[in-house]
Specification:
binds manganese (II) ion; TIM Barrel; 9 strands; 21% strand; GGDEF-domain containing protein; globular; binds sodium ion; binds guanosine-5'-monophosphate; alpha/beta
């Protein structure tokens, strides 16, 4: 396939970009860090949505070099931000399950000089569907390095509760579908509330994604969410723009 060939070439030439979306601390109103989001401008075609090219990268194994590239770019970038700002990096299940993932993380941390506590790895429930023991062992090794682990898209699947029981995640990120429905949908609001209660009981930081309005941000803050992200606080932008918009004093 032409798309696959272009992707292979782009990986070899490192023709990608990483955008950064602010993570907001709802209590202090200050920025807590950023999520790194991969972008690919396909020559002659324009931007390709990550869902599409990441799926191809997963099918072809290209996700291994591509995932390592994102991790490297994000850690080097974050090492230039003031501490204690964190960078959150999405990790594909295939990348995570690959034998040398922990070694890669350790090497990237060393090369970038980023303190392990300032790297947050976002994993999704789909990782947790197979090889439970191996996944738990890898999570424990990463935790021993000092890296933070977040469960992304919480509530979108159905395995997450079982996993919360078996691993002490540092953060859960409630899926944006719940936030986007919450003004009109009493059920979505009820789920927003029970997830933050659960997070409090388990002593896990709660993040709400996809916040697009000041009303949503205020409800989430009142409900006790520690952190939020979404277009209301800032869109994903290139690193220079991220620094100019969110890090430099006005
Ligand atoms: O940025 P956007 O909302 O278009 O991202 C779409 C999806 O792609 C999200 O689920 C996001 O987690 C995923 N994604 C973005 N960047 C990366 C990345 O670097 N690695 C992986 N595995 N997924 C990513
Ligand atoms: O699955 P994950 O949470 O990693 O997905 C992150 C994706 O969500 C990114 O592609 C990002 O562009 C998108 N995103 C971030 N903030 C918002 C928002 O406020 N609304 C919507 N619709 N998408 C958002
Ligand atoms: Mn994410
Ligand atoms: Na998410």
């Amino acid at each position: 396939r032409a798309l696959e060939q272009d992707l292979r070439r782009a990986v070899a030439r490192e023709q990608f970009r990483v955008d950064y979306q602010p993570l907001m601390d709802l209590r202090s109103g200050r920025i807590a860090g950023a999520e790194a989001l991969l972008r690919w401008h396909r020559p002659g075609h324009g931007p390709v949505p990550p869902d599409i090219f990441i799926a191809i990268a997963e099918e072809t194994g290209l996700i291994l070099p591509l995932g390592a590239w994102v991790l490297t770019a994000a850690c080097h970038q974050a090492a230039r931000w003031p501490a204690p700002l964190v960078v959150a990096v999405n990790v594909s299940p295939i990348q995570f399950r690959h034998g040398d993932f922990c070694d890669t993380v350790e090497a990237v941390l060393r090369a970038s000089g980023l303190a392990p506590e300032r790297l947050e790895l976002e994993i999704t429930e789909s990782l947790l569907l197979q090889d439970t023991e191996a996944v738990l062992a890898t999570l424990a090794r990463l935790r021993a390095l000092g890296v933070r682990i977040a469960m992304d898209d919480f509530g979108a699947g159905h395995t997450s509760l079982a996993y919360l029981r078996r691993f002490a995640f540092d953060k859960i990120k409630i899926d944006r579908s719940f936030v986007q429905g919450m003004e009109e949908d009493a059920n979505a609001l009820a789920i927003i509330r029970s997830v933050v209660q659960l997070s409090r009981t388990l002593n896990i930081r709660a993040n709400a994604e996809g916040v697009e309005t000041p009303e949503q941000a205020e409800i989430l803050r009142q409900e006790g969410y520690a952190e939020a992200q979404g277009y209301h606080f800032g869109r994903p932008v290139p690193p220079e723009q991220f620094a100019a918009l969110h890090l430099l004093p006005p």
